[in-house]
């Protein structure tokens, strides 16, 4: 099929943007803006409006790439890299953190308070401004944009910027070297991440020895969680909650228990235990809403060791398996097996990459970036449907694979299997 022409793409941008615009106007919501005082559109849009917005993003993205042409596409690599550099500079010097939404400062004052050269500061911030991070309302004066304001005031966004620029970015630069040195390795230590950070142990173990770094990662996860709309994904769990008086739910590697909390809010019969490293769960209890205390509990548990909570109804893993290569993901499942009662569920919340061309280029680029980030991190990957089937089959033939559900326009899927100890070999029903 021929690709759409630039005129068709521009019409798609116009049509779909109009749908999004008209919805916001009809609802009395502000139009998207770089002004820090104007709230961004809500995340929970009706599905047809979200689809129109996504179509406008995709068409404008495709149009842009046709307009800049092949040389522009190649050169873009360098220009996009410079955005990471500017973000790292701002994050390192905490620029803008004492600046209010309507206040202004100057390049001179920023440089002085951060012990930087004024000209260097001006040049770096003017680079960031081309990416809508800060703005210069008059020469020499610096004010917040919507993006710089959120970076300066939301500690979870700042933590994400720390992980992106200080943890991941240096590792990307060692990736070709790692892939050349250890082709196809499943070993989570033979990675670009260990090369870049001189790690001799797993990243999570290294961070556990360095509490501010562990905290930065768990806070970054909270930010990513906020954009991931966990309630929408979790609603795809096909489990007869309402027919049971009590359901025990173990959120393995659950961090602060975003998923457990969302599900406990929805299902009063749910009793949850969130397991993670001691440093990660420290203080999480105190942040629980009062009405969930007693129903959501935290427990230090290392998933490389045998699961200690026996006989639960559901063992849940959100964004866990994509951190590990097959060999290690199988080890996690096998450490769970001794705890499983007949009919127990393994429920995984992770991505399931469709074949090339099913998603829009922009959606596919986002997923494939995370896929490679997982390779860089621990030699792991984002799985395709067949990989999920195979994982359970290889881990233990007594798992019965129940299938994969992906809610419309969701980035993640729900992957489920059931424990059937009497089965000779697990059967696949979808
Ligand atoms: C990508 S995060 C996902 C966190 C959480 N499930 C969520 O959805 O936000 C991976 C989590 O696995 C935890 N983790 C890593 N290794 C672990 C281990 N050996 N035992 C328990 N938790 C571990 C990390 O501390 C981190 O919280």
UniProtKB/TrEMBL annotation:
Pfam families linked to this entry: Methyltransf_2
SUPFAM superfamilies per record: S-adenosyl-L-methionine-dependent methyltransferases, Winged helix' DNA-binding domain
InterPro entries xrefs: COMT-like, COMT_C, SAM-dependent_MTases_sf, WH-like_DNA-bd_sf, WH_DNA-bd_sf
Domain O-methyltransferase C-terminal span(s) in chain numbering: 196-395
GO biological-process terms attached to the record: methylation
Record key words, sorted: Methyltransferase, S-adenosyl-L-methionine, Transferase
MF term (GO), any: O-methyltransferase activity
Domain of life: Eukaryota
Listed PANTHER family: O-METHYLTRANSFERASE ELCB, PUTATIVE (AFU_ORTHOLOGUE AFUA_4G14580)-RELATED
Protein name: S-adenosyl-L-methionine-dependent methyltransferase
Organism per entry: Periconia macrospinosa
Lineage: Eukaryota, Fungi, Dikarya, Ascomycota, Pezizomycotina
């Amino acid at each position: 099929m021929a690709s759409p022409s630039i005129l068709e793409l521009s019409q798609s941008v116009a049509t779909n943007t109009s749908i999004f615009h008209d919805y916001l106007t009809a609802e009395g919501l502000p139009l998207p803006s770089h002004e820090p005082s104007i709230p961004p559109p809500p995340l929970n849009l009706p599905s047809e409006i979200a689809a129109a917005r996504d179509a406008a993003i995709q068409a404008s993205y495709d149009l842009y790439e046709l307009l800049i042409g092949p040389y522009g596409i190649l050169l873009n690599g360098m220009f996009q890299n410079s955005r990471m550099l500017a973000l790292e500079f701002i994050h390192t010097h905490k620029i803008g953190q004492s600046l209010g939404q309507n206040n202004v400062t100057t390049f001179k004052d920023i440089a002085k308070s951060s012990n930087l050269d004024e000209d260097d500061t001006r040049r770096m911030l003017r680079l960031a401004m081309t990416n809508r991070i800060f703005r210069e309302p008059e020469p020499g004066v610096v004010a917040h944009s919507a993006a710089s304001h959120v970076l300066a005031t939301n500690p979870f966004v700042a933590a994400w910027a720390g992980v992106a620029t200080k943890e991941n970015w240096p590792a990307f630069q060692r990736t070709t070297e790692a892939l050349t040195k250890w082709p196809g390795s499943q070993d989570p230590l033979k990675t670009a991440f260990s090369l870049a950070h001189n790690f001799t142990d797993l990243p999570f173990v290294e961070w556990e020895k360095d509490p501010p770094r562990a905290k930065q990662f768990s806070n970054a996860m909270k930010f990513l969680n906020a954009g991931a709309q966990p309630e929408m994904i979790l609603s795809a769990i096909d489990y007869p909650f309402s027919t049971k008086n009590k359901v025990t739910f173990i959120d393995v590697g659950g961090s602060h228990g975003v998923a457990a909390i969302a599900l406990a809010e929805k299902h009063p019969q749910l009793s949850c235990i969130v397991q993670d490293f001691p440093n990660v769960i420290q203080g999480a209890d105190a942040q629980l809403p009062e009405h969930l205390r007693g129903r959501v509990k935290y427990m230090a548990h290392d998933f490389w060791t045998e699961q200690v909570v026996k006989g639960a109804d559901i063992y849940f893993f959100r964004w866990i398996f994509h951190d590990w290569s097959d060999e290690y993901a199988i080890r996690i499942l096998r450490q769970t097996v001794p705890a499983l009662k007949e009919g127990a569920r393994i429920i995984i919340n992770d991505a399931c990459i469709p074949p090339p061309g099913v998603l829009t280029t922009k959606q596919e680029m986002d997923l494939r970036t995370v896929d490679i980030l997982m390779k860089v991190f621990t030699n792991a990957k984002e799985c395709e449907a067949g990989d999920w089937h195979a994982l359970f089959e290889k881990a233990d033939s007594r798992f019965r694979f129940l299938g994969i559900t992906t809610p419309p326009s969701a980035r993640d899927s729900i992957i489920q299997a059931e424990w059937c100890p009497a089965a000779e070999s697990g059967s696949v029903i979808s």
